Amino acid sequence: MGRLAREDILELSVAERIQLVEDIWDSIASVPDAIQLSEAQKVELDKRLDDYHADPAKGSPWDVVRERIRGRK
What we know:
Low-confidence stretches: none
Mean pLDDT: 91
Shape: flat
Distance between the termini: 28 Å
Structural class: mainly alpha
Helix content: 55-70%
Number of domains: 2
């Protein structure tokens, strides 16, 4: 795929744009060392992890959340 201009992206359907964002995010997530977190982000992630360990059943698995989001129109 070549470079996309903003106009090209806006011509994509919403579903195609969402897929594009997912593909971009996956490419970023594949190199986690390139992502620098601020101290506040680290604190928040630690808090969320502590909350999860305190009550793992309280949250929802990613696949459930993703399907809930995709189900909205």
